[in-house]
């Protein structure tokens, strides 16, 4: 489970978790995509979707547990923040905050 998402009984929604709900899985997906571009073999082409689907299922199970733990607060967070792929406007805002 994403340990950076909560601290004790408090939901953490800032930083990377304010842009995507599962930043670690987004990073894994980027690595998988890079591997496909850099080294496209039959094995990587077969394994990539299996790995991605496995992590999607894991993320959904984690979110079910987090809904039980945080209830409506987590549901609001889910409506506001995408699961894996950041929204362009959120990326621009995050970049503007780091530059200033």
TrEMBL record:
Single GO cellular component term: endomembrane system
Membrane topology: Multi-pass membrane protein
First-listed, main subcellular location of the protein, grouped into a coarse class: membrane
Pfam families xrefs: PEMT
Residues passing through the membrane, by range: 37-58
Compartment list: Endomembrane system
InterPro entries: Phopholipid_MeTrfase
Presence of the UniProt keyword Methyltransferase in the record: no
Keyword entries, A-Z: Membrane, Transmembrane, Transmembrane helix
Protein name in the entry: Isoprenylcysteine carboxyl methyltransferase
Source organism (scientific name): Nitrobacter winogradskyi (Nitrobacter agilis)
Highest classification ranks of the organism: Bacteria, Pseudomonadati, Pseudomonadota, Alphaproteobacteria, Hyphomicrobiales
């Amino acid at each position: 489970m994403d340990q950076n998402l909560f601290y004790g009984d408090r939901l953490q929604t800032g930083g990377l978790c304010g842009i995507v709900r599962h930043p670690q899985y987004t990073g894994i997906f980027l690595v998988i995509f890079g591997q496909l571009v850099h080294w496209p073999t039959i094995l990587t082409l077969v394994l990539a979707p299996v790995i991605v689907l496995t992590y999607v299922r894991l993320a959904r199970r984690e979110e079910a547990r987090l809904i039980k733990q945080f209830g409506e607060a987590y549901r609001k967070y889910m409506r506001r923040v995408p699961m894996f792929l950041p929204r362009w406007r959120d990326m621009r805002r995050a970049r503007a905050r780091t530059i200033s």
